Amino acid sequence: MRDALVSAAFRLFLERGYEQTTVDDIVTLAGVGRRSFFRYFPSKEDVVFPDHERCLADMTEFLAASGDSDEPVRRVCDAARLVLRMYAENPSFSVQRYRLTKQVPGLRAYELSVVWRYERALAEYLRVRFAGRADGSLRADVIASAVVAAHNNALRSWLRSDGQGDASATVDHALGYVQSAFGGEPAAPAEPSAAADGPAGAGDAEDVVVVVSRRGAPLWRVVQEIETAFARD
Questions:
Q1: What share of the chain is helix, strand, coil (3-state, %, to 5)?
Q2: Which of 208, 213, 219 is nearest to 179 (CA)?
């Protein structure tokens, strides 16, 4: 029944438009009652993203099963790949949803709230792993944001290509930037040298992306700035 409701909803969204389609229209086409719809989906927006709750639960379980020997940055990158797997299971549906979300401002806002929940799951795991370190919470939040930004940049590139090509390779390439910048133990700061021509480590500046954002800026703006920074490479 859940799949039938999703199928009916997207058929109507494509034929009539999202705003012109009501819950009553969806249940009529699916041949069920309104109560059945709300048993599976709290709102019309939720039927557009039917698999995110399951994916978020899978990600949370995956992170909870981590051991002390798991390298934290690699672990959160692997957790992000669970989201990619969800999209890649049904490329045509994922592409349809991507196009619909671009057209409807309310769905874009809903999607941002979903992305924020993924980011929080990653950050909470990293906060535990970095507990006791200097700037552990800051490091956790920055890495979680970078993982989400890199994953989404690659995912949207794949969706814009109508789901053609190897999505896994595209996302692996993007997440490689995050692991290169943050993976492993942080390097000790270099000692200043009298003979140095510039700041220590200046020759490696292109290996790290730094984004400065105003305190209190909305999360979607920070993510957008990080995505833009990665896109310049």
A1: 70, 0, 30
A2: 208
CA atoms of 100 and 94, how far apart (whole Å): 10
CB atoms within 10 A of CB 35: 8
Nearest of 55, 62, 57, 54 to residue 79 by alpha carbon: 62
- How far apart CA 213 and CA 146 sit, in angstroms, is 14
Note the pLDDT tens digit of each residue in 114-145: 999 999 999 999 999 999 888 999 999 999 99
Which numeric CATH code is attached to 49-183+204-231?
1.10.357.10
Q: What is the CATH number of domain 1-48?
A: 1.10.10.60
pTM (two decimals): 0.73
Residue 218 has a pLDDT of 56
